[in-house]
């Protein structure tokens, strides 16, 4: 039985390494991608030109048509999310910092996440809900971490 147990352990280690490698490759492949929500267009009407005009007018960033490598609606219905692949990571990095300019607009933009990243974020949000029940701590998500801060100023009513 010892040889079988060792073989199972070796296969489990190899499986874990392969899953980690797949996750890393997925992250690399999604590195230049964003997801746009709220375009309010039919999937058949989505084009690189529409996305280019929307980003340029909504975010007012230095963007050219060549900066958008590819566009894929993620559904068939009106108002489905749209996956946008940018040609340069530097263009993607400009977009989140311009997100404040989307206020008052029905459009929102997020980065494309792997299934593992989505699962981790879901877990973080569940823990955040629990953490916010404690009024003595300020809790929020920063990056991939849940942050707790002790309330520095407490006001007492007389």
Model description:
The chain is an alpha+beta fold. It folds into 2 domains: 31-112, 2-Layer Sandwich (Alpha-Beta Plaits), CATH 3.30.70.330; 117-150, no CATH class. It contains 4 helices and 6 strands, in the order αβαββαβαββ. The longest helix has 28 residues, at 2-29. The radius of gyration is 21 Å and the shape is extended. The termini are far apart. Residues 153-158 have low confidence and may be disordered. Residues 1-35 form a coiled coil. Keywords: Coiled coil.
Distance N to C terminus: 72 Å
The number of helical elements comes to 4
pLDDT < 50 stretches: 153-158
Q: Work out the helicity level.
A: 40-55%
The spatial strand order of the largest sheet comes to 2-3-1-4
Total of domains: 2
- Per the CATH scheme, the topology name of the largest domain is Alpha-Beta Plaits
| CATH domain class of the largest domain | Alpha Beta
Mean pLDDT: 85
The CATH superfamily of the largest domain bears the name RRM (RNA recognition motif) domain
The amount of beta strand, in percent, is: 15-25%
Cα shape: extended
Radius of gyration: 21 Å
Largest sheet: 4 strands, antiparallel
CATH architecture classification name of the largest domain: 2-Layer Sandwich
Structural class: alpha+beta
SSE run: HEHEEHEHEE
Q: What is the count of β-strands?
A: 6
């Amino acid at each position: 039985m010892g040889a079988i147990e060792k073989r199972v352990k070796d296969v489990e280690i190899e499986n874990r390494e392969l899953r980690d490698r797949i996750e890393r490759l997925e992250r690399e492949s999604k590195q230049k991608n964003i997801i746009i929500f709220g375009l309010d267009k039919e999937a058949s009407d989505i084009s690189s030109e529409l996305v280019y005009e929307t980003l340029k007018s909504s975010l007012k960033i230095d963007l050219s048509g060549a900066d958008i490598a590819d566009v894929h609606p993620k559904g068939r219905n009106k108002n489905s999310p749209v996956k946008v692949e940018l040609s340069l990571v530097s263009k993607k990095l400009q977009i989140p910092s311009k997100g404040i300019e989307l206020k008052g607009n029905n459009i929102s933009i997020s980065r494309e996440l792997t299934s593992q990243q989505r699962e981790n974020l879901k877990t973080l949000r569940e823990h955040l809900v629990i953490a916010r029940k404690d009024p003595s701590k300020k809790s929020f998500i920063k990056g991939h971490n849940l942050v707790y801060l002790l309330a520095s100023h407490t006001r007492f009513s007389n």
